[in-house]
Write a structure and sequence with these properties.
With about 150 residues, the protein is of the alpha/beta class. It is built from six helices and five strands; from the N terminus they run βαβαβααβαβα. Strands 2-3-1-4-5 form a five-stranded parallel β-sheet, sandwiched between helices.
Length: about 150
């Protein structure tokens, strides 16, 4: 049975570092959602990326970002999102989702602190609605975050 794991959350929280550690420990390849060059077309890009993931549904992988970002960022910034497409991806992959929440010590190059606060709150809110696993990362090393995820798996 393929195993799909999505690690998501706001920028600069150490997702990529944690995903790399998990990849080594679980011996799983990583699929990373790259940042699009044109942020004005983010919803189309996001829909394409999430749909692309379903092509790998027969294989196990760890995803560095995924459809949770689409849901959260669309909600925070009042963007139109095709929820039926997201629902389709979620049903096909049936992933374990872990959301990293907290505030980074390094400055985000796109979002200001008030936006990051809203983004974190939406991740927390949607985590409860969708039964995503929350991992609070402040004051934790990437290794500690990795270990916490492994314990919950």
């Amino acid at each position: 049975q393929p195993f799909h794991l999505i690690i998501d959350g706001a920028d600069k929280l150490g997702k990529t570092t944690v995903v790399q550690m998990l990849s080594r420990k679980l011996d799983l390849p990583i699929i990373k959602m790259p940042r699009p060059k044109n942020m004005k077309q983010i919803e189309e890009y996001s829909e394409f990326y999430n749909e692309l993931l379903t092509q790998f549904s027969e294989f196990s992988f760890i995803c560095d970002r995924g459809f949770p970002s689409s849901i959260v960022y669309s909600s925070v910034f009042d963007r139109v999102l095709n929820y039926s497409a997201i629902d389709k991806v979620a049903k096909i992959l049936k992933p374990k989702v872990f959301i990293l929440v907290g505030f980074s010590k390094s400055k985000d190059d796109i979002f200001e602190d008030p936006d990051l606060f809203k983004i974190n709150k939406k991740y927390e809110e949607f985590s409860k609605s969708f039964n995503w696993n929350l991992v609070y990362v402040e004051e934790k090393s990437p290794q500690e975050v990795c270990n916490e995820i492994l314990e919950k798996l």
